[in-house]
Design goal:
CATH class: Alpha Beta
Number of helices: 4
Largest sheet: 9 strands, antiparallel
Number of domains: 1
Radius of gyration: 15 Å
Oligomer: single chain
Order of helices and strands: HEEHEEEHHEEEE
Number of strands: 9
Helix content: 10-25%
Mean pLDDT: 94
Distance between the termini: 15 Å
Structural class: alpha+beta
CATH topology: 3-methyladenine DNA Glycosylase, Chain A
CATH architecture: Roll
DNA sequence: AGCAAGATTAGC
DNA sequence: CTAATCTTGCTA
């Protein structure tokens, strides 16, 4: 589930160095019946990773400008992914700032799905990566998120009825506050 | 072969 | 509020 990814750590280890951040905001895109999911039109070349085994990455170029990274969550043949929308920077902050090429406070370096891939140096080359590997991977460092909020997903025109965005309540690195949180746990 | 749209962001 | 920027997927 999307909730389980909150509090985990996304790490990208490259020649330039290692950068990582605590996952504080995600959105679920589930199945061909979800109109906002890239699997909605059925299998295509682009969404192939969604139909693959869980635990792999699905990276794509959005608006011709930003790379967005998902974690494939369902068994092979069942297309679903969780979009990572924001991280609290942990390691490699100097490297992140260099990649962002812009004066930004620490907490905002990985704020937003396009910004975090830029800060971590994630691109199309990282598509279909095994997230239990040693280049782009998710680590459990025993850190949890104490308070979680849910809201509709952001930036989409369809499927807004589903409250499948979840984030660390009130965290400074969350991309933005929800218009209407559905519940808090 | 041509075209419209898109899970965003920064700048005016 | 809008431009930027380009790949995918659909239509002809």
């Amino acid at each position: 589930m999307a909730r389980d990814l909150l509090g985990k750590v996304l790490v990208h280890d490259t020649r330039e160095g290692l950068a990582s951040g605590l996952i504080v905001e995600v959105e679920a895109y589930v199945g061909e019946s979800d109109p906002a999911c890239h699997a909605a039109p059925g299998p295509t070349k682009r969404n192939a990773p969604l139909y693959g085994p869980p635990g792999f990455s699905y990276v794509y170029l959005n608006y011709g400008v930003h790379y967005l990274v998902n974690v494939v969550t369902e068994p092979e043949g069942s297309p679903a992914g969780v979009l990572i929308r924001a991280l609290e920077p942990l390691e490699g902050i100097a490297l992140m700032r260099r990649r962002r090429m812009r004066p930004i406070p620490d907490h905002a370096l990985c704020q937003g799905p396009g910004n975090l891939t830029r800060a971590l140096g994630i691109s199309l080359k990282n598509n279909k990566f095994d997230l239990r590997g040693d280049t782009l991977y998710i680590a459990d460092r025993g850190r949890g998120i104490e308070s979680v909020s849910w809201s509709p997903r952001i930036g989409i025109a369809v499927g807004t009825d589903r409250g499948w965005r979840c984030f660390a309540s009130g965290h400074v690195s969350v991309s933005r506050e929800p218009l209407s949180p559905l519940r808090k746990i």
